[in-house]
Design brief:
The chain is of the alpha+beta class and about 475 residues long. About 30% of the residues lie in helices and about 30% in strands. The chain is built from 10 helices and 22 strands.
């Protein structure tokens, strides 16, 4: 297994500054498994509430997509189908355990999927808890779930869903999809943030089969079930936040696990041969630190959690987190180009969400201003996926200046797709070379009080008399 890590930051801070931003680049594109694929367990959760029959083609598409997902499972993978309404029901297998994928079980599962009926309400927390219970029997496997819904979680309170997510966090990862025009992207993002997956919209029922099969195929590529970012801080340094910023934005801070007073781990979910970037925010303080030299304020490394072991195993060497303090006041706040880029991607997400909200409320002028700025930022950063999704809401007159016009007719599904895709980012450009080291301040010559000879300002003692120099 091979992980390559790199830290980018503008570490040259004035003593009046208190924040250090770092981008951690993790390249696992060389990550490989052994000759035998790792154990895997998959739960496919399908919303079968009454709204899935409006129109009936929606539940029909879900049946076909579920069958396609089952067919994408490799032999030996443990799997189950869950039918979600105002309760969670195990659709396949009938016993309260997972089946093993082979030709016979896939055929049985396809027949079970064909019998899905749309009736009842929506209680996603209960669906996820059943998935957790099924997956708990396979602690050594790479555990993953798919969740499809067409509606909002009206069958339970937000507090109930939050409690379910706390119980499921760290147990398995989950990707979620919304279909139709009545689901809530924010709700799905809360689920996938807690469970380290990705939420997105299915714009057309015909796309659902390919989307389901693709999610399973990606899950089958996973090699490590639980990779964590371990951050160790020195006294006087505090972690403000840790978030994934590429390929999607995921807030990792809330589920941090403290190992001791100065060390915390942040779960990133399961990994295949991935390339991911993370943004770390640290509060730092110059008191007592030397000036004009690199000072280590902490370190960051990856670790892999293993079943039955109390502490995650380090993956590769720790990368130092450095600050170079200077009393000189900067003309303007400086950041590393990678940090600046991902701050811009975060701003892009905020603009898209705010623009969609304004459009949903009928404020077309405000929506045009916000989405115009989003178009400008997406264009300048090369985020073509975001540009495509925003382009379904507005006519782009001039992307470089952000001139747009709200389309006469905006489809609700396109509004949801733009909101769901607001987390999508593009990779940062290569960082600029580090600046030359800051020169030491020039000190005047110093005179020996005994022999009256002059010595360079950097000298501390007279070489003739051994007398300590003054002045």
């Amino acid at each position: 297994m091979e992980f390559r890590t790199r830290v980018n930051s503008h570490r040259w801070l004035s003593t009046s500054e208190r924040q250090l931003s770092v981008v951690l680049e993790v390249d696992a594109t060389g990550l490989i498994g052994g000759d035998v694929p790792p154990a895997a367990a998959e739960v496919i959760v399908v919303d079968c509430s009454g709204s899935m029959s409006l129109p009936p083609t929606k539940i029909a598409a879900a049946r076909r997509a579920t069958a396609a997902a089952v067919d994408a499972l490799r032999d030996g993978v443990r799997f189950a189908l869950v039918q979600g309404t105002d309760t969670a029901r195990l659709l396949y297998p009938r016993a309260a355990q997972m089946a093993t994928a082979n030709a016979a079980s896939r055929a049985e599962a396809r027949r079970a999927a064909a019998d899905m009926i749309a009736s009842g309400g929506t209680a996603m927390g209960s669906w996820l808890l059943l998935a957790r219970d099924l997956l708990a029997a396979h602690p050594g496997a790479i555990r993953h779930a798919i969740l499809l819904t067409d509606g909002q979680n009206v069958g339970e309170t937000p507090e109930q869903l939050a409690a379910a997510l706390r119980e499921c966090a760290g147990e398995f990862s989950c990707d979620a999809r919304g279909i139709g025009a009545d689901w809530d992207p924010g709700e799905l993002h809360r689920i996938t943030t807690a469970l380290r997956g990705r939420a997105d919209a299915v714009r057309a029922e015909a796309d659902l089969v390919g989307d389901f099969a693709g999610m399973i195929t990606e899950a089958m590529r996973k090699v490590l079930p639980d990779v964590r970012i371990r951050v160790e801080t020195r006294p006087g340094t505090r972690i403000r936040f840790v978030k994934q910023v590429f390929p999607t934005e995921i807030e990792l801070t809330a589920e941090a696990v403290a190992l001791d007073e100065h060390t915390a781990e942040f779960a990133t979910g399961s990994w295949s041969a991935d390339l991911r970037h993370f943004h770390l925010g640290l509060a730092v303080h110059p008191d007592g630190a030397p000036r004009h030299t690199d000072v280590q304020v902490g370190s960051v490394r990856l670790a892999a959690a293993r079943p039955g072991r109390t502490r995650a195993e380090p993956l590769g060497a720790a990368q130092p987190l450095l600050v170079h303090w200077s009393a000189a006041e900067p003309v303007a706040r400086q950041e590393d180009p990678a940090v600046e880029h991902y701050l811009g991607q975060a701003r892009l997400r905020q603009l898209v969400l705010a623009g969609c909200e304004a459009l949903d409320q009928g404020d077309r002028n405000r929506a045009a201003n916000l989405l115009g700025e989003a178009v400008q930022l997406a264009s300048s950063s090369g985020n073509t996926e975001q540009l495509t999704r925003i382009g379904r809401l507005v006519e782009i007159l001039d992307a470089a200046t952000g001139q747009v016009r709200i389309r006469d007719r905006v489809e609700p599904v396109d509004l949801l797709a733009a909101e769901a895709g607001s987390v999508l980012s593009v990779i940062a450009p290569a960082s600029a070379p580090e600046p030359e080291p800051e020169p030491e301040p020039v000190r005047p010559d110093r005179r020996c009080a005994c022999c009256d000879l002059l010595w360079p300002g950097s000298a501390n003692f007279c070489e003739i008399t051994g007398q300590e120099l003054t002045g």
